[in-house]
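Example record

The entry below shows one chain as it appears in the dataset: sequence first, then structure tokens.
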Amino acid sequence: MSKQNSNNVSPGDDTSLRSLSSEDVSQAPRGYCCAKSANPADGKGRKLHLLQMLVLPFIPIMALIVQTAVILNNIMIYRQEVMDIENQVTISRRYEEYSCTMCF
């Protein structure tokens, strides 16, 4: 039988089956992906994780708010233009009615 390590995996399979654990990340050399600050077990990592969980959900919410505001602004401009045209038509009709009554 072949010699096995503590994970009950043969030495050749150790590299292909090994997963990245939190201990591996916390022991990563400095300068690679901010391993020390990204560790959620660390105080600074917890704060960073909390900030991410609070800020990231608000990005799509803010995008929807901005999109709705732009659409609402366009609707208000369109409505104002329609009201201006309606007023012009009303004034034109009154003028036509007044001029027609003068003809008789």
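Notes for this example: The chain has five helices and no strands. The chain has a mean pLDDT of 76.
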